[in-house]
Every structure is written in C-alpha cells, then in structure tokens.
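thoughts on my protein:
***
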Amino acid sequence: MTAEDDAGKKINLVIRHATGEEDIQIKCKITTPFQKIYGAVAKQKGITTGSFGLLFDGEKLNPEATPKMLEMEEEEQLDFVVAQIGGGRP
C-alpha cells in the first residue's frame, strides 16, 4: 500500500466506556489526528474535550497523533475515561 492509498484509508474505532454506557463508533481516516476524534466524541456526548480522555492500550492518546502512527486497525478499541480533577492533598 502506498502513502497515497494510506491517506484515504478509513477505519472504524470503537470508544468503550468503563461505566457500561453504549459504545460509540467513529469512522475516520487513518491519517486523522486524534484531536478531531476527541472533538467528535465530545460532540456526540455533549461534553467538552477537556472533560475526558481516550486511552489505547492503557496509554492516553496524544491529540496530535494519528491511528496510522499507532498502527491501529479496523474496530480498534479505545477506552473513554472521565478526566480526574483534583485529588491531591493540601
């Protein structure tokens, strides 16, 4: 597959919630930055992009990375986690 072929290749990502809420399916190009995927998830859930995180293999996704950079494949699962605020001791 050439770089040109890669640019147009699309995959489905499954956003899974730890709370058991219904999964979200996102279809995107493998060259789409995760920043756009964060935006799509936030829009579907009616929340801000800073109020949650997406994890892949236990690691938080860099908004500037792409599925291609992480060698993601069709139906790859991402974990949706609510951002933790505070928690430190005074």
About this structure: The domain at 3-82 is CATH 3.10.20.90 (Ubiquitin-like (UB roll)).
